[in-house]
């Protein structure tokens, strides 16, 4: 499986796929031009948008307070958010967790996960503290990374807390899980709540076909970080989703094919001091793709 994952040829594969997908979807890339800018919207993402639920990874809004991040997410017209610890600290007091939950409820947002969280030590106390954090916050999924030998201990707490684990692949620099296939190999015989968070940008940088990775992950895919790159070899080439080379329409189609029940969280890591314009454009493109898929649904 690992060898097949490394056969991805970015330039030729993507151009060919994008042509085929655009022709098949018709309206997917024409309903929302790549350069269009969506206005702030109170639109709530619907769970029946071809079965895909669009959300925001709050790392995109890391330079803003939690209150600001919640308001900004609401203005994007999405309902789902994954919290980074900058917006809810690991050592927060119980009253702060309650306050955060109340703020989210007032804004009509659902907290669908936390992270990325790093499990640093292979000890019960070292693992438990993050499960206690997720439980206090009401997070059903922990997006994480760790060394592979910590996974059996993490699995024990998954069973105890009934909180899912989604291992985040981090590209060629990651010594543990550079590709989704590395994470998939590690959890394939473990509890079904042990799964993957496929980061599209880091996946293609690892030389892995993201569409094939989604297909092979199947029910082990528990979360996704959506982004786009202009150059599959350069992390700094991240751009507005739809302006790069990642085959978003085909990824979304494959998510539909596996009946993906998780969230597609936009992780917009560029322009940290003014992320909303690019995030709006990215979500507009993603919604256009979903509209195209819905239009061709048989």
List keywords for this structure.
single chain, 298 residues, alpha/beta, TIM Barrel, eight-stranded parallel barrel, two-stranded antiparallel ribbon, 11 helices, 10 strands, 16% strand, globular, disordered N terminus
Our measurement of the CA-to-CA distance between the termini, rounded to an integer number of angstroms, reads 32 Å
* % residues in beta strands: 15-25%
How many domains comprise the coordinates? 1
Oligomeric description of these chains: single chain
Level-2 CATH architecture = Alpha-Beta Barrel
What is the number of helices?
11
CATH superfamily: Divalent-metal-dependent TIM barrel enzymes
* Biggest sheet architecture: 8 strands, parallel, barrel
Main-sheet strand order equals 1-2-3-4-5-6-7-10
Helix content: 40-55%
Query: What is the count of β-strands?
Result: 10
Sum up the overall morphology in one term: globular
Q: CATH top level?
A: Alpha Beta
CATH topology: TIM Barrel
Which consecutive residue ranges, at least 5 long each, have pLDDT under 50? 1-6, 11-49
On the 0-100 scale, what is the average pLDDT?
Answer: 89
- The structure class reads alpha/beta
Q: Could you tell me the radius of gyration in angstroms? A: 18 Å
Task: Describe the protein's architecture and organization.
With 298 residues, the chain is of the alpha/beta class. It has one domain (2-13, 52-295): Divalent-metal-dependent TIM barrel enzymes (TIM Barrel). It is built from eleven helices and ten strands. Helix 3 runs parallel beside helix 4, helix 5 (124-137) runs parallel beside helix 6 (151-161) and helix 9 (210-217) runs parallel beside helix 10 (248-257). The two termini are 32 Å apart.
């Amino acid at each position: 499986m690992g060898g097949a994952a490394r056969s991805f040829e970015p330039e030729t594969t993507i151009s060919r796929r994008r042509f085929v997908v655009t022709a098949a979807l018709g309206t997917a890339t024409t309903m929302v031009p790549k350069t269009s800018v969506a206005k702030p919207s109170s639109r709530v993402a619907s769970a029946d948008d071809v079965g895909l639920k669009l959300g925001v990874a709050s790392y995109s809004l890391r330079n803003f307070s939690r209150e600001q991040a919640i308001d900004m997410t609401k203005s994007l017209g999405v309902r789902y958010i994954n919290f980074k610890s900058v917006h809810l600290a690991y050592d927060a007091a119980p009253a702060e967790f309650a306050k955060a939950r109340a703020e989210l409820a007032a804004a009509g947002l659902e907290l669908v996960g936390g992270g990325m969280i790093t499990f640093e030590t292979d000890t019960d106390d070292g693992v438990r503290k993050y499960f206690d954090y997720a439980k206090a916050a009401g997070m059903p999924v922990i997006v994480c990374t760790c060394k592979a030998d910590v996974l059996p201990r993490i699995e024990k707490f998954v069973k105890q807390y009934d909180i899912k684990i989604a291992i985040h692949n981090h590209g060629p620099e990651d010594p543990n899980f550079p590709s989704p296939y590395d994470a998939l190999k590690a959890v394939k015989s473990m509890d079904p709540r042990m799964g993957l968070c496929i980061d599209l940008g880091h996946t293609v940088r690892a030389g892995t076909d993201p569409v094939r990775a989604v297909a092979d992950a199947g029910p082990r895919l528990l979360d996704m970080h959506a982004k786009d790159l202009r150059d599959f070899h350069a992390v700094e080439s991240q751009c507005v989703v739809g302006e790069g080379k990642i085959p978003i329409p085909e990824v979304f189609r494959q998510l539909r094919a596996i009946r993906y029940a998780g969230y597609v969280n936009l992780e917009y890591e560029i322009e940290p001091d003014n992320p909303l314009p690019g995030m709006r454009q990215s979500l507009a493109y993603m919604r256009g793709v979903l509209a195209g898929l819905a239009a061709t649904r048989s």
